[in-house]
Specification:
Layout (H helix, E strand, L loop, with lengths): L1 H25 L1 H8 L5 H13 L5 H10 L9 H40 L7
């Protein structure tokens, strides 16, 4: 008789641990977002509860979403914007150099054509 009650108590204990364990695990992305002062932490929290109904299918994406934000660098795209800005300026400089070279080649071709059509002094 004692073992029946002990088994029932153990079964209830394991069920409660699994139930609360799932709730704690589903809240990990929200805790990460809260720790990082994420601007979408409320949305991550709600999506975590929604993930309970989708059997945690969207949970890995919530984890990624929560870990992308950092206060010191935001989403991390500032460096990419700076690199694109630098590349744009370098490209403009290269386009200007190519234009100058084309003008110089055109000028030199014109001089060469003039030299070819002008009479050559006779050598003695």
């Amino acid at each position: 008789m004692f073992l029946d009650y002990f088994a029932l108590g153990l079964l209830v204990f394991v069920a409660l641990v699994i139930f609360y364990g799932i709730i704690v695990i589903h809240d990990i992305p929200y805790e990460i977002a809260k720790e990082r002062d994420h601007p979408h932490q409320d949305a991550i929290h709600v999506a975590g509860w929604v993930s309970l109904f989708t059997l945690h299918a969207i949970w890995p994406f919530l984890w990624i979403w929560a870990t992308l934000w950092r206060n010191e660098r935001g989403w991390g795209f500032h460096k990419l914007e700076e690199e694109q800005h630098d590349l744009h300026h370098r490209l403009e400089r290269l386009v200007n150099q190519v234009s100058e070279l084309q003008q110089e080649v055109t000028y030199l071709k014109g001089q060469q054509a003039n030299a070819a059509t002008s009479p050559q002094p006779e050598e003695k």
